[in-house]
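Extended Data, panel c. Modelled sequence:
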Amino acid sequence: MKSNLKSFKALQGDAIELNDFNINNISVDYISWLNDPIVLQYSNQRFITHDFISCKKYLKTFAGTDNLFLSIKTKKTNIYIGTLSVYLNINHGVADVGIMIGNKREWGKGYGQDAWNTILSFLLKKQDVRKITAGTLDCNTAMRNIIRKSGMKIEGVRNEQELINGKPQDVVLYAILNKEN
């Protein structure tokens, strides 16, 4: 079964625009986000040193799949500030979403919430998506707030799953069901 998830040009939020991430998005700024210990403090990507080749390799993993890798730009200033990924399991109708606002100067301005709400709204309109999931570390307060404000509910907890600065942290799993399906 094939999804029609990729059948859009751009998704418009109130203050952001989501577009397909492409080779031109692999910039010095993007690579610096991926190597910034503060940006990636809660991500397992913090254990990898990223460069143009590793970024290009990751981008290629989306080719020929139903999965989405999107760039996040501000509408007002047209600044590229982050990325959003959607991993779709079409056989089960489940989409797992992740986000990174890499440009720290744009943190706290509501762009992450707008991007998150925009992709959830898009996915919830798709007939082949019956459930959307996401997960984050319990200590990642900003991400937990974005997820909760979007209407997603806690579905489960993986107790003491990962280590942050040597201290065990829970992974909190969230979900929202598509009421249209």
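The first strand starts at residue 11 and ends at 12. This feature is highlighted in the accompanying rendering.
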